[in-house]
């Protein structure tokens, strides 16, 4: 016949104490830390669309640094996503915002190689001089 379990006093017996089964005071915070770390890592980064997706080959115009005349993205024809990808590659902070500002201020004069209107629009939207330079170095009318 099976023995019925004896009532417990709330204290761990010797075997449980040695195995650490009753010492959950340190295990709970450790478990919570692991769960939070997994959630933070899993939620990092937002969704991207268009040519701004990681792993998608960027056009030559999106090469970091000052772009040459042949390697610039057109402000007249490019989508917000393409402009944002180019600006991101050129280390412009908040590239999506600036891409929207650029497209909302179209048209730009085709005969303005210094991008005077674009510089004016960026300044009106509180872009600092280094940001204006990074943006205009990557774009062409």
Structural class: mainly alpha
Per DSSP, the total helix count is 6
Could you tell me the number of beta strands? 2
**SSE string, helices as H and strands as E:** HHEHHHHE
Regions with pLDDT < 50 over 5+ consecutive residues?
Answer: 57-65
Instruction: State Rg.
Output: 29 Å
Percent helix range: 40-55%
Cα distance spanning the termini: 92 Å
Task: Describe this protein's structure.
The chain has 141 residues and is mainly alpha-helical. It has a domain at 95-141. The protein contains 6 helices and 2 strands, in the order ααβααααβ. The protein has helices at 14-19, 27-43, 80-89, 95-104, 116-124, 129-138, and strands at 73-74, 139-140. A two-stranded parallel sheet has the order 1-2. Helix 3 packs across helix 4 (95-104). It is rod-shaped, with a radius of gyration of 29 Å. The N and C termini lie far apart (92 Å). 23% of the residues are buried. Mean pLDDT is 75; it is low at 57-65.
List descriptors.
rod-shaped, 141 residues, mainly alpha, two-stranded parallel ribbon, single chain, 6 helices, 44% helix, 3% strand
Give a short synopsis of this structure.
The protein has helices at residues 14-19, 27-43, 80-89, 95-104, 116-124, 129-138, and strands at 73-74, 139-140. With 141 residues, it is an all-alpha fold. The chain has a two-stranded parallel ribbon with strand order 1-2.
Topology:
Elements: H1 14-19, H2 27-43, E1 73-74, H3 80-89, H4 95-104, H5 116-124, H6 129-138, E2 139-140
Parallel strand pairs: 1-2
